[in-house]
Amino acid sequence: MKKISAPSKILEVIEAVHYRPAVSVIMPFEPKMSLKTELTHSLDLAADKIERELLENYSDEMSMLVMRKLKSIIKTLNFDTYKKSIAIYVSPVFEKVLYLDIPVEEKIIIDESFEIRDLVYSKKELHKYLVLLVSARDSRIYLGNSSTFVKILSKASESESSQNELPERVANFSDIAERKEIEMHKFIHQIDHTLGIILKSYNLPLFVLGTERILGHFKKITKHEGAVIDYVQGNYEDISLFALHEKLKPHIDDWKKVMQKNLINKLDAAAAKKKLASGMRDVWRAAMEKKGSLLLVEKNYMYAAERGSSDEIIYKAIEPYNKFSYIKDAVDDVMEKVLENGGDVEFVDEGYLKNYNHIALILFY
Fold it and tell me: How confident is the model at residue 51 (pLDDT cuts 50, 70, 90)?
């Protein structure tokens, strides 16, 4: 069997000639973060489960043929990889291993064929988000998940509070109200600068909490509106972490809604920076040029196409199809290219991308 150390030729899996059963094993696989014995044990458990199901539904001969291939693959996996997951594909006449950059949930599929979309559907749903608490005295930024908060510190955030401690009187300002307004603007600018630094490291949904006055200032000044999922109004200067979790719970319970809003925010921000391709033909060109950072596709969207005069050009297929240039579903090809080149793929509900012709690609550059 030919091993590959990076996700490549995923399309080969989809178009492979194979006989049933087609077994797909998608699993977390981070040898640099986990013990080899733990990973091997998980794979052996998966193999045992597959063997039982094969013997129940297929002939002994066919089952044993597939199991020999699968066990051989498991024994020869690359434990020096820095990837996050693997996808193993095995049938009586086909076998391949893909090492991927995306975190996934374990999934075993025994079916008639292999589907690239199964990889995307198996992606691990990480409930992570940022919380910015702003008051007139200071600000705090937390990394939150389903159960805990961790305060994020930076040099900029550590200095914000001290810079906002003002003397009662400033000789150059006779109007105290005007002075406070100007200092508030300076303070919010400092916070927003720090937030920009943190968002570069943690590109996550953001919730901003503060009083009506503070949030009003923040909305006028921030350069990061595109990251904000929701504003939560109130005085939270002395709120406990438990109370903070309870306050945010109604806003994050529908995580799918949070993520889809976050994705649309990212699309809008990319469009404003002219780093977005939309519609199948433009997305195809950008993906073939290896520019794809994040591909967004409406569920069940498919696009039959024909190749143009170069690899970067396709047209919508019209019957009768030219068998030499026909592409059954160009969406699968685009997903393959984006994953192959270190990008990511997300599905959204039908209609979410109606303004982008059902498919959009955020570009690296």
Answer: very high
Residue 162 has which token pair?
């001290």
Question: Dihedrals φ, ψ of 150, to 5°?
Answer: -125, 125
DSSP 247: H
Q: How far apart are CA 223 and CA 127, in angstroms?
A: 24
pLDDT exceeds 90 at position 226: no
Angstrom distance (rounded) from CA 26 to CA 361: 25
Integer CA distances (angstroms), 83 to 32, 86, 110, 136, 344, in order: 9, 8, 24, 44, 13
- The answer to whether 205 and 259 have CB atoms below 8 angstroms apart is yes
Is residue 325 predicted with pLDDT exceeding 70?
yes
E strand or H helix that includes residue 133:
strand 129-134
Instruction: Give the ranges where the chain is alpha helix by DSSP (H).
Output: 10-15, 36-57, 60-75, 116-121, 155-163, 176-201, 212-221, 241-252, 255-272, 280-288, 330-340
Cα–Cα distance for residue pair 336/276, rounded to 1 Å: 18
User: Model-level pTM greater than 0.70?
Assistant: no
**pLDDT value at position 5?**
39
Contact of 17 with 94, CB cutoff 8 Å = yes
pLDDT of residue 211: 92
Q: Provide φ and ψ at 7, rounded to 5°.
A: -65, 110
342 by Cβ neighbours in 10 Å (0-12 / 13-18 / 19+) ranks as: middle
User: Of 280, 287, 263, nearest to 10 (Cα)?
Assistant: 287
Q: Nearest Cα to 129, choosing from 271, 299, 244, 295?
A: 244
Q: What is the DSSP string of 285-348?
A: HHHHTT-EEEEEEETT----EEE-SSTT-EEE--SSP-TTTEES-HHHHHHHHHHHTT-EEEEE
User: How many Å separate Cα 308 from the centre of its chain?
Assistant: 31
Q: Give the DSSP letter of residue 129.
A: E
Count of CB atoms situated within 10 Å of the CB of 161: 14
Q: Which tokens belong to 86?
A: 């693997």
- β-strand partners of 164: none
| Contacts with 174 (C-beta within 8 Å, 6 or more apart), sequence order | none
